[in-house]
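In response to reviewer comment 3 from the previous cycle, which asked for concrete evidence that the modeling workflow produces usable outputs, we include below a single protein chain processed end to end. The sequence was submitted unchanged, and the resulting structure tokens are shown without manual editing.
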Amino acid sequence: MKLTRRWISMMVIAFSGGIIFVLPFLFEVYYRPMIDAFGLTNTELGRFMSTLGFVSMLAYFPGGWIADRVSPRLLMTVSLLATGAAGFYFSTIPSYTASLVVHGFWGISITLLFWGAMIRATRNWAPPEEQGRAFGVLEGIRGIGEMVPHFALLAIFAWLGSGDKALSVVIAQASAAIMLFGVLCWFFVDDPVAESGESTNAAKVGLKEVIAVLKMPVIWLIAIVILTGYCAYWGALYFSAYAADVFLTSVAVAGFISIGKMLLKPFAAVAAGFVADKIGVAKSTAILFIVLLLSFVGFALLPGGASMYFLLIVNVLVAGTMIFALRAIYFALLEEGKVPLAVTGTAAGIVSAIGFTPDVFMPEIFGYLLDTYPGAEGYRYFYFVIAGICAVGFIAAMTIQYKYVNKNT
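The workflow returned the following structure tokens.
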């Protein structure tokens, strides 16, 4: 019974960790419909995400600190309920300024309250030798938590005519689902901090411990890995717009391409976790960055048009698999880098504050490039930039491998 309860707890944590991001990342599937419904330019839509990213950047560190002190169940429940409530307001298609405020609020409700608590709960969920598969399971189930709602919502969007009213209904239904998981978190998520006896140590995490974490070189290397990997993820977020603008697919087909790649996430994430436990997290990360570098160079060089559909789909599958595998394991570097368990929330907050800054600058870069160089040329420059960033991630991963993993073997 205890084993069953343990897995139910992980299922709710992971599903919640997927569905909570449906609202702030609606543009991944509904890029053109959002521009039309809200009357935005590419740059203005990018500013929604920049606002979310800026607030999140400020919230990651205190959120991690809070996660070392407060029950994950309470934090995640409040976060999901608040995020869904703001979503209902966003479904009314408010003004540009009000929409910016909503995205800023999501930066608080998701990042300050939810993210660190989810990482803390996951690391406590598995022993040290199984951290790769623990985060792989988390990311895999999170993928299902994103994919299933997106498929259902896109079907409803198409059925309702793919217009402004349809988009409003989609946002409202996503908000209701998120609030439902807030209720489920309260009733089904255990408190791994209290159960593992870590709460006393966590309460002692103060300024001295925070400074000690900041002085760990491996923390900064992990932050670079996450930052560069997250830039690659941002490249994938624009696959739908890329397909519609360069390959001239319909909005619905482009949306299904974007959602279709989500099918890869559960399998790629879980497989990556098991492989990382076998050959090492840092080594696996380095390999993934090399493949991503080549894949994004391919996107930059691939000519558009209907005749290139097959190559587009193949490269989307390759990039999607590598990105989901990478996102599944990079927090397992905390264990491989010998970061103490008692400061997991604080460490996760620090590396996340740095690692997820692409939320601030990547939409701005994309919006600027697409407005300055419309069409295929803008996408070409964008994906070349991401390929270069992946090279930096490879160097950071190999540095962790040689300085921390090989040194301890």
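Residues 2-190+207-408 form a domain with the Growth Hormone; Chain: A; fold (CATH 1.20.1250.20). We consider this sufficient to address the reviewer's concern, and the full set will be provided in the supplementary archive.
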